[in-house]
Structure formats: structure tokens, C-alpha cells
What does this fold into?
Amino acid sequence: MDALQIVIVVAALASLACWVLSLVTRDTSWVDRAWSIVPVAYVWIFVGVAFAHGDGSARLVIMGVLATAWGARLTFNFARKGGYTGMEDYRWAILRKRMRPWQFQIFNLLFIICYQMTLLVLITLPAGVAAQHPSALTGWDALFIVLFAAFLVGETIADQQQWRFHERKKAAGGTLAPGFATAGLFRYSRHPNFFFEQAQWWAFYAIGAAAAVASGAGLVGGVLNPTIIGPALLTVLFIGSTIFTESITASKYPSYAEYRRSTSMLVPWPPRTRAVAAQS
It folds into this structure.
């Protein structure tokens, strides 16, 4: 089997495991627990098969290292929030209450399992493009690698700022004005961690595209190639998830409406004057 076939088989087995576990445990967060792990495995499958066939490259190894750094950071952040202790994502519990049991099970199978697990394959496909076009690194590679690293640092900072806010909120007895993080990077984006998460995979796509261009591909097939569907669908997922998450937050905190009016949803941008006071 070639690398993509191996990835598909592994993804199918992981998806089946997540679905069965969600039925047995009545916990639909198994995909969340796999989210930071399986893409790393997929990228290294592309790397390993390429080298086994004599088509390995420094670019491909770097892509494996970048994916691993992404996965390690995300796994750590998910673990410290209790993600591996059986705690289900609160949004699934809310959706479960809004749907009939059979409707939620269809949603669980088609969206939570099939869509998201397929997406985790799609975002790693630029590594397959790099494997198909082994060539020397270029200045464009350097740029996109630096951007990926910068976005990784940005997400790390945003997650740490959010973590510290919630720790202070917990220490204050569960209440800390205005109820949500607004300082640091959250002054410039309501969800800076979401922005940086997506941006990393766009940079990852760009590295794969750089490999194709370096091998002679042009605008179509090189700069723009079919693997762009991965980061594009990831962005669609994050926008939808963000809108749903914000509807929940806005229902809990009246001051969130002003924060929403004054602060960019995703892309960090200078805020407009707002009444919501940033916590110290």
C-alpha cells in the first residue's frame, strides 16, 4: 500500500474506535481526544513511506517535526484541562439536549466522527504533496516554516493567557468580571487561539505547495492544489464552532455583546473602544 492508503486505513480504524467508544461510554468527545494525535501519525506515515521508497527530503522531515510540535502543544493543553479524564465537551451536552436521541446519534456519526476524522486526514495531505515532489528547500519554505512556528508560539501564548484567566476565576470562586478573557491577545481577537490554530495548517499547506512549485508546478497544481480543501474545511469548521460557542457565552454574560462589537472574532486586530474592562 502507498502512504495515502495506509493513512486511510488507520483513519478508518480510529474513526470506528471513536464511534464505538462514544456509544459504549455515552461520551462524544473521543474525537477531541484523538484530534492532536492522529494527524501527527498521518504525517509521519507520509514521511516514513517516502524515505522507504527513496523519496525522502529535508522538507518532509521538517513537516513531520512541525506537526509533532503542533500535536505536543495541543495535547498538553487539552490534558491540563482534563480532556483525557472522561470530561465531555460541554457543547455536545448542550446539543444533546436540543435534539432527539436519534437525531443526536446521526449527528454524532456523520459530523462528530465522519466529518471531523476525515478533516484530520485532509489537513495532513500537503505532506503527501511534499513526498511526491522531493526537492531542495527554497526561500518560500523558510518563510512558511517561520510562519508556522510563529503561529504555534501565538497559540501557545493565547492558551496560556486563557488558562491563567480561568485559574484566577476558579480561585475567585467561579466568578471573575467580565466572565471571559479580554486581556493580552484576547484584547485583539475574541479567539486568538482559534486563529493561530487555523493559520498553522494554512502554513502547512503552503509548505506542500512550495514543494510542488519547486518541482515545476505552476499556479494551478502547485500554488493551488487539491489539498487546499483541508485548511479550507478546517476554517469552515472553526467559524461554525466559534459562532455556536459564542452563542452560549453571550447567553451567560450580558457584557459579551459589547466585547463582540468591539473585538475581532478571529483575526487579531486593534480593538474599537469598548465598555468591557480588561482584567488586570
In short: The chain has eleven helices and one strand. Residues 62 and 145 are 8 Å apart (CA to CA). The beta strands are 218-224. Residues 139-171 form the longest helix (33 residues).
